[in-house]
Amino acid sequence: MGKILKQIHYTPAKIERGYSNKSLYINVGDLRIEEKEVTGFMKEKFVGGKGFDLWYLWNAVTPDTRWDSPENEIVMSVGPLGGITQYSGTGKTLVCAISPLTGIPIDSNAGGYFGPLLKFAGWDALELQGKAEKDLIIFIDGNEGVISIEEGEEYPEDSHLLAEELTTRFAGSEEDKVHVSVVSSGSAAKHVLMGMLNFSFYDPRRKTVRFKQAARGGLGTILRDKHIKALVVKFKGIKPNLNNPADIAALNRIGVKYHKEMHDLDEKQNGMRKIGTANTILVMNKYDLLPTRNFQTGGDPEAVKISPEVFITQYLTQGLHDGCWYGCTMSCAKAADHFKLLTGPYAGQCVTVDGPEYECAAGLGANLGIFDPQAILEQNFYCDTYGIDLISYATTVAFIMECYEREQIGPEHTGGLDLRFGNAAASLELLHQMSRGEGFGLLAGLGIRRLKQVFVERFGADPKLLEDIGMENKGLEYSEYLHKESLAQQGGFALTNKGPQHDEAWLIFMDMVNNQIPTFEDKAYALFYYPMFRTWFGLCGLCKLPWNDIVPADNYKTDTPAKVPEHVQNYVDIFNAVTGKKIDNDELIRQSERVYNFQRVFNLRMGSGLRKHDKAPYRSLGPVTAEEYLSRQERYDKQLRELQGLDPETLSLEEKIAATRTWREKQFELLTDAVYKRRGWTNDGVPKPEHLKEIGMDLPMLLEVVEKHL
Amino acid sequence: MISVNTREQPWRDGLNVQALLDEMGYVFRHIIVRVNGEYVPEEAYARRLIADGDDVQVLHLIAGG
Prior knowledge:
The structure holds 2 protein chains of 2 kinds. Chain A contains 29 helices and 17 strands. By secondary structure, chain A is an alpha+beta fold. Chain A is globular and about 80 Å long. The model of chain A has no long low-confidence stretch (mean pLDDT 97). By secondary structure, chain B is α+β, with helices and mostly antiparallel strands. At the A-B interface, α8 and α19 of A face β5 of B.
């Protein structure tokens, strides 16, 4: 136990209709601990969760704030529905900060118990500001009403050791471990810009600490830059009525109906309870959507080696409850138990690996040309315990591997690492270098945007090629779906607030396969509705998966099955049942629109948020290289014929690639026009004052920012 | 010819829904099939014949990620 540097006592606030109405501010620089009121204005305009995070963050920073400025904050909040136990997916914590990778607000979310326990400890949100000189542990005891800041130098860095040790210490007994949750990062987060946050929950059946991640955008890097080694919250006494909802009978009724659907239908639909999100690996491969070798193609015959069945039969423990918050019958947080590590500082040890999620198998597998489940799980484990966002890692290493194979960089630059596609040993060594803060791993940890500059300026690489194949937008690496054939999803990634993460919109099937949104206006509507609908989960503390990874048996009868209308109504009803408000479907979308536009203006305030910042790398839009074109030649030739009226027989390969590029880049620009118009933005991507007024966000602070860009 | 998700596809005599899904590579489990607007339950895929000129809708339901 480290020396206690500061300790305060407080009276935990009672939760009323989903809110404690208090937030906690901690400055680790001067050890200030303060309580703030959550105002009616905050609840009206920002609802909670990501909305509260962005509001506090806006007030903490200036346009000159950088990710490592002391005033940058990590803000986290679970939202008014967070912590209810009647419905699935209600334990998400939303986290925001100015990102090391993008320089603008990042939002990321995680399951695990921290957010709900924080609220039940009396806090709707937590702001962390300042920078400590030495490593600290922050402990919030929600039963005793004590907050302590103590020295944390003596604790291990890596999350699987750190969280286990802190859980054991602060629980005090085996049965109390489920009442403790830890937020931590890992040894690599001090050395890379893509550090992430692990949110723990104790699994009493496995008798081990498990993790979900708020991974995107470098939040773990900021945590460690502030010298916060871990946050710990303890609260004993979880009950279904802790949110003191306005109508618990309605909550129970909606929940019972939903859980029956899950019980009856999951096995016939996506099988989330068996394999989680990794159920789609072979589906993505079949539909040419599994990113392979840096998004060059959408599949590979070897993908069968990393099929869901392989993970289910050889690695993942079945039959255990795998929910990452109480009451989640989707139970999709799968784990490989007794997994023997072959490399690194923990080689020879058997560990529990949380995963693989789809993104993990696709990113650390296919996108690196690695079709070896053992190697995927080992990279998964080390990304997690070292505190590395595996999506940014995978997409960055895929880029590096392509640069290596195209001789833009060589072994003289990588310290001898033979970073060709498929070399799992080299990827694992790169991870260990990130943990140790040495070698080429240090460079790789900068992410693609900075690597492009380094490779060009120091290693003489071709800048045009690197711009085309570096899969980043706004500085954030793309998540793991090949989307060249879905114009809507090109926008779903690039026309986002934080950067290309699929949690705003996943429209590939609607667009590319179902052909439901053929016109620019259709796509623009989808790029309005779905990002707004999905933003709402982040305002309330909800997981997206229970919305549409299981749907009612009669969903097919509805006019809009992709929206899953019955589940949308569930969410409206749950919100009203908890808060006592009377929102409808339109107000749900409007709640999100307020926060979404606030975030867009926040980007503008930080020097981003314009059309030029929404530009996509060409690899996202179409075939960059001759190999890519030739691998799908029939498709591309047909498009030349049918879309452009060109005869491919009369064109050279270079001419066909150029004509395809001109066409596709034009389509993306036309899509951008349509999306901005639908969202109420100018053609340069700036929210119009009249639109801000219409949605109730014509706040002087926002108008002052947008008026500079009109 | 038939229309599948508003795109033209070749038709052949005896084509049923299951054969069409196989040929299209539509292996995703979570889909809705409608022929001329009429819902076809999964257990009827193999026996529901598709006629020349039919309008087939195969909705893949995940909107997800």
